[in-house]
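Entry 14. Structure prediction run on the chain below.
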Amino acid sequence: MTSHDSPNPAHSITKATALPDDLELVSQGPPGSGTHLMLSALADALLQAGLTRTPPITVASDLDGGAALLHVATGGPGALGSCTPAYLTTPVVHGLTETWRSLTPVAGLVSDSYILVVPSGTVASPAELFAGATTAVVPKAGGNTHIQAMLLSEATGTEVSVIVEHDPAELRRLLDRGQANWTTGVYSDFAAELAAGRLEVLATFGAEPVMSTGMTAETMRTLREQGIDVTFPLWRGVIAPGGLPTSVADAWAEMLPQVLVQPAWLEYTSEQRQRTTYLSAEQFTGLLADEEVRYRRWLAALDG
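Output returned:
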């Protein structure tokens, strides 16, 4: 992914009136999830940038987020959905006829990092964790944690068994009871447990160390720094229905770079220790096409 210089926050928003009156943000994750936090910050930043009212957020998290894809696909020009790697895996896993290619990529917004977490006090490093066979608990079959389990097994030459558990509370109980050794996610997925000391971070899947609220640089060292050659970039952007009118696409292209320097957005990225990585519609489309090839290869390996 490439990032652009931050635009001048003093620039005024001139295209707000070109957006449909029925603007709706569509989250593929529930409140508190990474996508919902992003869209909440985006909604507040849009208001700060000149939009006359805060757009509502519709949660469509069924089908592992596929419901959001379908909601955007059948929505009007005012629909703007979160877009993450789930839009590459969910259509394959659930056999959906609609994919990201049915929609209009609008922009890439942010880079995040997956973290490898374990129950506190169980192991001190990824090397110790993968010294022998382990059990991972993953929130969905064919999702990113499932893929990461496969990649870690290959990179370490160890056996990784997988338990699929859709219920976040039960997923955490499996870790608490020692029925699973580890899982992955983003910081917001485990914020309460990390703050309470029930879980701890062994590493990030990023290409470089990342600081996050309540963590030290030591706990956020990358897997690669610790001798395991696995990276797994995480990006989030926004996507609109197919056939988006040019006037609306142009409005988003002019507005979003300015929105991303508003106080609400800067506070969000600072609190979550994420990096604003603006990609134009063309660049984001290219990223999705490239990532689709990689994800299809990974899903085929899981099936094999």
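Confidence is low (pLDDT under 50) at residues 1-12.
Filed with the rest of this week's runs.
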